[in-house]
Amino acid sequence: MFAVSGRTAAERQPGFLKNARARLGRYNPSALVLGAVLWICLGVFILYPLYRLLYMAFVTNGTISFESVSRIMSRRGNRLAFANSLKLGVLVAIFATFIGYVFAFARTRANLPRGWRIFIDSIIVLPLISPPFTLALSMLFAFGPRGFITYKLLGITGSSIYGMWSTLWAEVLTYFPLAYMTLRGVLENINPSLEENAFSLGGSRWHVFRTVTVPLTIPGIANSLLLVFSASLADFAIPLVLAGHQFPVLTTQAYLQITGLYDLRGGAGLSFILLVPSLIVFLLQRYWVGRKSYVTVTGKSSSGTETALVSNWARYALLAFCLIVSAFIFLLYGMIVFGSLVKAWGANHEFTLANYQYLFTHGMKSIKDTLFIAFIAMPLGGLLGISVGYLVTRKLVPGGRLMEFVSMINYALPGTVVGIAYLLAFNDPPLMLTGTATILIAAYVFRYSPTGIRSTIATLQQIDKSIEEASTSLGADMLTTMRKVTLPLVLPALFAGLEVTFTRAMTAISATIFLISVNWTLITVRILESATELELGHAAAFSVFVIAAVYIVTNVLRGILRLLGLSTIQEKTAAY
After folding, report:
1. Number of helices followed by number of strands (H, E) in the chain
2. pLDDT < 70 stretches in the chain
3. For the chain, which domains are there?
4. pTM for the full predicted model
5. Residues 6+ apart with CB under 8 A from 197
6. Phi, psi of 63 (to 5 degrees)
7. N or C: which end of the chain has fewer CB within 10 A?
C-alpha cells in the first residue's frame, strides 16, 4: 500500500516556490493586480516594439547578422549624417545651455522687476507649446529668399537659408527653454548663505560667481547639456525643413529610408545607430541627476542675495541680453502670425483671412482628429504616470525600479526610433494597429507619461507614508486609499502629466509621422505637407491654431489647480 504523508500540499512544494509565495504575500493584492496590468501594457507598447526593431536590424533569415547595420553604415551619406547629428547636437547643447544659464541666472540672481520676469517667462514658454516646425518656418519667413530681414530690410536676393547654421540656431531657440528650466531649478535651490558668506569674506562678485555659484551648478549644467543634446539628436522636424541635402542628419535619413526607399530593414538599422547615443546620453543624464553632493537644497535665494551678487551694470547687461533674445523670438513668432494673415509671403502681403478659412474647412478633419487623440491621451498619460510613480515609490510591487526604467525607455529614445519601432510591431498580426487612433494614442501615452512618473515620485518622496498607513489601518483597501488619500496629495503631479501629454499630442510629429493614415491625420502632419508644398500661409495658420489651443488648455489646467488651492509643479526636464 502507498504510504500516506502527513504533510500538506503547501509543505510539499519546492523551497523556491514557498519563498516566492512568502515574498508575494508581503504585497497588497490590489497592487499586484495593478502592477500586472501595467507590466502587460509596458510589455506590449514599449518592450515588444523595441524587440521588433532590434529583430529587424539584427536577424536575417532566422540568424543573427550585422549585415543590415554594416550595409547602412557603409554608405558615405549615412556616415556623414551620423557625424552631422553628433556635431549639431554638441553645438546646440553648448549654445542653448549658455543662453539658458544666462536667463536662469538673471531670473534668480539679478533681482529683476516682477514685470520683466513675467515677460521673460511668457516668451520662453512659446517654443515649448509650439509645433516643432514653427521656428523653422519663422526662419524661412525671416531669412529665406524672400525673407523679411534678408530681402525686405537688407535687400539681399537669392540667399539660401538651408544648411547647418539655420538648423543650429532654430534648434537653439527651440531647446534653450529646456536648459533654462533645468538651471533655474538648480539655482533656486542653492543655499544663499554659501554665496553670502563668500561675499562677506571679501570675495568680489566675479570671484563668488566663479568659485561658489558655478561649481554648485555643475551637475545642472551637465544635465542641461545632455538633455539638450538628446533633444537635438532626436529632432526630426527642424532638420527636415531647414537642413536640406546640404546637411543630412540621422533622423531625416531614417525617415527617407522608409518613406522614400521603403526599406524597413535599413530604417531599423539607422534607428539602432540613432538609439545607441540616445541611450548613452539618457544613462549619463540620470547619473548626473542622481548626484547630490554638489548641490545644496537647504534654502532659496533671497532678494538680499541677489542685490549682493549682481551689480547694477551686470543687472542691466543680463536684462539687455534676455530682452534681445526674447525680442528676436517674439519677432519670429510675430512673423508666423503675420504670415498667416497675408495672401502670399514675400509676393503679396495683402491682408486676408483665407488661410484661416482653409484651416476651418479643409483642415477641419485634422483639427478634430488631433483634438480627439490629445484629449483621450491626456488622462491616460496622467493616470499611467501617477500609477507607476505610486507603485514604485511606495514599493508596492516587486521589481518597481525595473518598472520605472522600462517606463522611461520610450522617453529616452528619439521619436523617429519609437515611430519606426511601432510601425514594425503593429503593422502585422497579431496586433495590427497601424492606421488606427489606438496606436497614435499609445505612442503619446507611453512616450510622454514619464513626466508624470517623475513628478509623482518627487511628490510622494516628500509625503509621509503614515498618512496612507492610517487610512489602511482604518479598513480602506489600497485602491480606496490611493483614490481618497494619495490622489489629492499628488494632484499637481497628475496635472503635470496631463499638461505635458496634451501639449506633445498637439505638437509632436517625429514618432507619429510613420503611424498616420487617411483615417486619422494630425495638424502637425498638415503643417509639414503645407510647408513642403510651399503653402506657407496655410502652415502658419495651422501653427497659430496649435499654439492657441495648447495655451488655452494648459492655462485651464493650471487655473483648476489654483482653484483647488494647489500650485503647479515646475518642470525640470523635457517632456518633448
Report:
1. 30, 4
2. 1-27, 158-159, 191-197, 199-203, 287-309, 462-464, 468-469, 478, 565-576
3. 9-48+341-576 (1.10.3720.10), 77-333 (1.10.3720.10)
4. 0.82
5. none
6. -125, 150
7. N
